[in-house]
Design goal:
Keywords: FAD, Flavoprotein, Oxidoreductase. It contains no helices and seven strands. It has 114 residues and is an all-beta fold. The protein has a single domain, classed as Beta Barrel (Butyryl-CoA Dehydrogenase, subunit A, domain 2), CATH 2.40.110. The chain is globular. 23% of the residues are buried.
Length: 114
């Protein structure tokens, strides 16, 4: 759920967008401090993003979706360090999502506000 440039401990600040496009969801945004994403054994992540519109209630705009790590459009930008330690092998990564398409069935418990 953590993102740069916002107070990400509050889910209402999430800016990563999850938009419906037919039978898929399209994800665009940036996350950081994503624990374990740099591990070769990590095959899938649970991403929290915004599915609600500007009119959606503040606390009913976030959804979670399953995203396979090998989906086109995912870039592991860099490992992030804490006090000079990169915490290998699981690590903490900054991740960029650019037009990442996942099946509509990957949404967990349905779209927020729906």
């Amino acid at each position: 759920m953590t993102e740069p440039a916002v107070a990400s401990s509050d889910a209402t600040n999430i800016r990563t967008m999850i938009m419906r496009d037919g039978d898929h969801w399209v994800i665009n945004g940036r996350k950081h401090w994503i624990t374990g994403a740099g591990n070769i054994d990590c095959k899938i992540m649970i991403l929290m993003g915004r599915t609600g519109t500007a009119e959606s209630p503040t606390y009913r705009s976030q959804s979670q979706i399953l995203v396979p790590m090998d989906t086109p459009g995912i870039t592991l930008v860099r490992p992030m360090e804490t006090f000079g330690d990169d915490d290998c092998p699981k690590g903490h990564m900054e991740i960029l999502f650019e037009d990442v398409r996942v099946p509509a069935s990957n949404m967990i418990w349905g779209e927020a506000g729906a």
